[in-house]
Design brief:
Elements: H1 16-39, H2 47-81, H3 88-119, H4 121-125, H5 134-140, H6 143-178, H7 181-195
């Protein structure tokens, strides 16, 4: 099979374009967090607080943004694609299995952060204000915890990038051809509604 260039968000209809933008944004967020963990030293003033701030931001992003993205795919796009063409069902099963692995990796990051909280209860109570607790955070963020964050972020990045590439090639490209414009519009309205808090329309 010839290697075709994958489409850009500008070349795709909604909701595919939005899902692809999510992929791109997620890659940037994960790479930024990993770069922070890779370059972190714990001996400078405020260094540990900065690492914990980035780790918290990553934890929040995975729990909120990535979870919403997966829900848009599993609850909106995947059902629309099922049984439309040979091989799509197998591709969807494969993507759902990868989502399960991503959720498991997210759980590992959550557990690492929970262990950090266990050392300093004030971090959990004031998640948005922990950066001011430099001394407490420095005591909790040991080199071993920092190394664990580095490894988990690196694994998460590797898993997500591979998963996104599979999804874009195996699902987004065929979906563009398989789903009628009116179906795409309906799916786009449903994914957009998932972004807004409040009662369903």
């Amino acid at each position: 099979m010839a290697m075709n260039r994958l489409p850009t968000p500008e070349e795709l209809p909604e909701p595919l374009a939005g899902l692809l933008r999510d992929h791109e944004h997620t890659a940037v967020v994960i790479a930024g967090a990993r770069a922070t963990f890779d370059g972190a030293r714990l001996d400078g003033p405020g260094a540990a607080a900065r690492v914990v701030e980035v780790a918290r931001d990553l934890q929040r992003f995975l729990a909120e943004d990535l979870t919403l993205h997966i829900a848009k795919e599993e609850d909106v796009l995947f059902p629309a694609l099922r049984s439309l063409a040979d091989g799509i069902d197998d591709a969807i099963l494969h993507m759902v299995a990868q989502h399960d692995e991503i959720r498991a990796r997210q759980d590992l990051i959550d557990r690492t952060m929970a262990a950090l909280d266990a050392h300093h209860h004030e971090v959990e109570e004031e998640r948005d204000a922990f950066i001011s607790e430099v001394m407490a955070t420095t005591a909790a963020l040991t080199p071993a915890v920092l190394e664990d964050l580095r490894e988990r972020a690196m694994r998460m990045e590797r898993i997500l990038l591979g998963h996104f590439a599979d999804e874009e090639e195996d699902l987004f490209v065929p979906a563009r051809a398989l789903l009628a414009p009116e179906v795409m519009q309906s799916l786009a309205a449903r994914t957009t509604a998932m972004d807004r808090p409040g009662p369903p329309a």
